[in-house]
Specification:
globular, alpha/beta
Length: 519
């Protein structure tokens, strides 16, 4: 397979400018990340420690294998929503007893581990990843249940958590719950609907209604331990499968449970040994444009991500603004669709054919998005851009091999759909800090509205442009869980390698069943 020959000039003014801007965006994201890492702040962290408890990330560190990895997902969920940054929960994929698992853990330093709307969305997303990729799910539970003052935002969508738990179990995907503290009200159903439960003595409290609710409902003065203590559930109710003495004991039991599953991956796995790219991944900081209106060569990115910088170009002279081809990443074979500009009819046809070919040979697809949309205008409408664009969306919609999507620039309009955006259910979506997403660019949208209103509301149009500008940023998108996290460009290869390994826990199978093609 030929190697990509880089022409990136790291001494150019454009490269230096892009790198400086990217580092600035990373600093902003790091600031938001520090807020998430701080949890509920010093006061509540100290209170948690005074109770002899481990912090959530300390629990995860003990759970995953020494020397193993943990890829945190949705770390900035809730940004700019009014919810705590991170949603008061940590989710991710880690290796436990040699098995890749989805890990979901409440952060009890954040409002007692109660659930907000962002927490619910984040937890459901983690469970989707568990189900779609056939990864065992481990819950590290210590939660006061729903944030009651905001129950209207939580109650209805939150019910899907219990539905997902039972569906995972029905699909043969094990659910293991370790309870370290309160697991109240709806939260009590989390251990109740798990395959395996571990409760910590003198700490775990699992009940549908705590003492205050029991008093209000039936006028009973209930003792917490008798009502829902760990030993009661181990001896009397049968809810606890294992009674742990300490947090570390509970985590150790959780690891033993994963070990005895004898979990086996169903995908083909890596087909070659990983090979470093020929070019320094650090150069990715300046390879993409900070200003998404400025085009850049997407192969320069691929050259610093894929194994050995090797890339087999498919139809390189036809539809050149969509790069398609085969490569490997972390030893896993992939098909790549990467934008080098706007999508015309030729690019749409090329992409649809390439997706079909990858489905025929059961190869996962990596979509690299930097797309302003499909081409518009009389000439292109008459040539059939709608029916050709529909072919690409048809192929993306019905493809059954795993999709991974990487946002490295613009993601506007139906271009987002044709390149497997979030609505098309890719297994994972990751973004770079320069990513922008909206129905169209803010300036274009303002211009359209100016024409529609015939210039009668310039202040309203300006306000709308500012709103769209704010709501199209990578930080806003990740706060809404439109992606699974913003990655430092230098970490792209390792992040995608983990994601590819995860998708191979389940079968990797293509299809020949696509919708009707309008020719």
């Amino acid at each position: 397979m030929p190697s990509i020959k880089s022409r990136l000039d790291v001494s150019s003014e454009a490269y230096v400018s892009n790198r400086t801007a990217m580092l600035g965006m990373l600093a902003e994201i790091q600031g938001a990340s520090q807020k998430a890492l701080a949890g509920g702040g010093d006061k509540y962290t100290e209170r948690h420690r005074e109770r002899g408890k481990l912090l959530i990330r300390e629990r995860i560190d003990l759970l995953v294998d020494r020397g193993g990895w943990f890829l945190e997902l949705s770390p900035l969920a809730g940004w700019d929503t009014g919810d705590p940054i991170g949603g008061g929960m940590v989710t991710g994929i880690g290796v436990v007893a040699g098995t890749e698992c989805v890990i979901v853990g409440n952060d009890p330093t954040v409002r007692g581990g109660t659930l907000t709307a962002s927490t619910v969305k984040k937890q459901l997303r983690a469970m989707d990843i568990s189900r779609e990729n056939r990864l065992p799910l481990i819950n590290l539970t210590e939660s006061g249940g729903a944030d009651l003052p905001r129950q209207s935002e939580i109650f209805v969508p939150g019910g899907a958590i219990f539905r997902s738990l039972t569906q995972l179990s029905a699909a043969g995907i094990p659910v293991i719950t370790l309870v370290f503290g309160s697991s109240t009200a709806g939260g009590a159903y989390v251990p109740g609907m798990s395959d395996y439960t571990v409760l910590q003595r003198d700490a775990a409290k699992v009940f549908l209604g705590g003492p205050p609710l029991v008093k209000m409902a039936i006028d009973e003065d209930a003792d917490e331990e008798q009502l829902g203590g760990a030993e009661m559930h181990a001896r009397t109710s049968g809810l606890a499968d294992y009674l742990a003495e300490t947090e570390t004991d509970a985590i150790g039991i959780g690891r033993q449970i994963i070990a005895h599953l004898n979990w086996r991956k169903l995908g083909p796995g890596a087909t070659s040994s990983p090979r470093d790219p020929l070019y320094d991944p650090d150069e990715l900081l300046g390879a993409a444009s900070a200003d998404i209106r400025v085009p850049f060569e997407v192969k320069e990115l691929l050259a610093r991500i894929v194994d050995g910088s090797d890339f087999e170009d498919f139809k390189p002279l036809y539809g050149p603004t969509l790069v398609c081809g085969w490569a490997s990443l972390g030893g896993f074979q992939i098909g790549v669709l990467a934008n080098n500009g706007i999508l015309f009819s030729e690019e749409s046809q090329k992409g649809a054919q390439f997706i079909q070919l990858c489905n025929r040979i059961d190869v996962p697809l990596l979509f690299v998005q930097n797309i302003t949309g499909f081409m518009v205008g009389t000439r292109y409408e008459q040539r059939g851009i709608i029916k050709d664009g529909a072919k690409l969306i048809n192929a993306v919609s019905n493809s059954t091999v795993p999709h991974l999507t990487l946002m490295v620039g613009a993601s506007y309009g139906a271009g987002n759909y044709g390149m497997s955006g979030r609505a098309y259910n890719p297994r994972f979506v990751f973004s770079w800090p320069n990513h922008r997403i909206a129905v169209m660019g803010p300036r274009q949208l303002a211009g359209v509205m100016g024409i529609v209103t015939r210039g009668r509301d310039p202040e309203g149009v300006a306000a709308l442009e500012a709103q769209v500008e704010r709501e199209s940023t990578a930080l806003f998108a990740t706060g809404q869980l439109w992606d699974d996290g913003i990655v430092d460009p230098r970490d792209t290869r390792s992040t995608l390698s983990v994601a590819l390994s995860a998708v191979h826990s389940g079968p990797v199978e293509g299809t020949s069943n696509f919708g009707v093609w309008r020719m």
